Amino acid sequence: MIGIVTGYSSGIGKAICEKLENNNHLVIRLSSRLENKEELEKEVKEILKTTQIDFLINCAGIGLFEPHEELNTKQIDNLIAINLTAPILLTNLTLRSLKQTKGIIINIASIEATRHSKFSALYTATKSRLRDFALALFEEVRKSGVRVTSINPDMTLTPFFDDLKFQPSSKEANHLLADEIADVVFDILLSNIAITDITVRSQYFGIEKK
Predict the structure, then answer these.
(1) Distances (CA, A) of 144 to 87, 100, 104, 148
(2) E strands, the chain, in order
(3) Count of CA atoms in the C-beta half-sphere (13 A) of 68
(4) Which of 170, 63, 178 is nearest to 121 (CA)?
(5) Distance separating alpha carbons of residues 66 and 73, to the nearest angstrom
(6) Strand partners, 55
(7) Are 45 and 32 a contacting pair, CB within 8 Å?
(8) CA angle 83-3-201, nearest 5°?
C-alpha cells in the first residue's frame, strides 16, 4: 500500500511512518507547509498525476492551551490551518484517487474532541470539527468503498508537549505511547471493516506541570 502521512517528523506521525515502512508500505512525505494551501495543493496534484494512493493519514497537529483572550490572531489562524483546514483540503485533493483504490482516510483527532476541558476551547474546536468532518464524510463516501476513521488518543508521551506548560504523567499507566497509536492505525488500515470512530485511553489520568 502507498499513501500520505502528515506530521511525520515526530511523535505519533513518525511512529506511524516507521510502523508502515517496517511492514513494506510506502509513505509519501509532503514537503509543503500545511499552512500554505497553494503550495500544498500544487504538490499533492503533482503526486497524484503519477501515483494512486491507498491511504491518507492526517496526523499533523499543534496545541495551544491558554485563556482564549490571550491568544492572538496569528496563533488562532495557524492552529485552525494545521489542525482542521489542512486535513480537509488534503481529503478534498486525494478523495478521487482513494475512491479508485477503495482506500482509507484516518484522522488523528484527540480525546479533546470528545470532552470539554479548561483552556482548550480553540484546540477542542478544531479537533471536534475534524472528528465531525470524518464522521459525516463516511456517510457520503461509504458506497464508494472508501473508509473514514477518526482516532481520538488520550494524552500521549510525545514532543507535542515540549512547548506547553504541562505534560502527561510519567507514570506508565497514565499515558499512551506513540507506538501504541501507530499499532492501532496499522490494524485499522489492514481491516476489512469500517471503523469510523475509536477513542484510545490510558488506564489512569495524570498530568505534570512544568
Answers:
(1) 20, 8, 11, 11
(2) 2-5, 26-28, 55-58, 104-108, 147-153, 156-157, 166-168, 176-177, 197-200, 207-209
(3) 8
(4) 63
(5) 14
(6) 3, 104
(7) no
(8) 50
Rounded Cα–Cα distance for residues 172 and 17 (Å): 24
Amino acid sitting at position 193: I
In order of start, what are the domains of the chain with their CATH numbers? 2-209 (3.40.50.720)
Burial class (CB in 10 A: 0-12, 13-18, 19+), 89: middle
Q: Inter-axis angle of helices 11-22 and 178-190, to 10 degrees?
A: 50
Strands 166-168 and 207-209, sheet pairing: antiparallel
Task: List the catalytic residues.
Answer: 123
Query: Which helix (DSSP H) or strand (DSSP E) does residue 94 occupy?
Result: helix 86-101
What is the Cβ-side half-sphere exposure of residue 18, based on CA atoms within 13 angstroms? 13
Q: Mind listing the pLDDT tens digit of every residue in the chain (210 residues)? A: 999 999 999 999 999 999 999 999 999 999 999 999 999 999 999 999 999 999 999 999 999 999 999 999 999 999 999 999 999 999 999 999 999 999 999 999 999 999 999 999 999 999 999 999 999 999 999 999 999 999 999 999 999 999 888 989 999 899 999 999 999 999 999 999 999 999 999 999 888 998
Q: How much is the pTM?
A: 0.94
CA 168 to mean position of chain CA atoms: 19
